[in-house]
Amino acid sequence: MKKLILTLAAVAMAFGMMAQNVKTVPENVDVKTLDGKTVQTSVIKNDGKPIILSFWATWCKPCNKELDAISEVYEDWQAETGVKLIAVSIDDVKSSARVKPWVNGKGWEYDVYLDANQEFKRAMNVVNVPHTFVINGKGEVVWEHTSYVDGSEAELFEVVKKAMEAASEAE
Q: Does the 26-170 domain belong in CATH 3.40.50.300?
């Protein structure tokens, strides 16, 4: 009996530790909109639907390839899952003025924020870009990936669909 109690206690502790290790998006980090308005990362919400959070930079060719590839299918992804993509530029203060014209020139329909001081990048433990996260409807990071190769967006969308399905099953 004592072994059973100890085993159950160990299992409960393990589950408790796993629950504590759930990564979420910090809500109190300042970022800027493309219009220069400061907002906190608490604006990163999508009414219980998945979010793709992509850290990128104008100088990063793989970042741009990834965001261009997603742009081609983004409308379909939104229609199927309600996903929202939020692109966070880590361009520094010197190059951040190029971000808005860059995004407009690309025609990206994403929410784009500037993280010129890279506080949000550090809070999310991003080292290299592109660094892409999928966040479920509860604000939990359920997947993350660095780098990009042609076709990676298909895997990303599969993860988004699974996050959406998990949210539907939980209701």
A: no
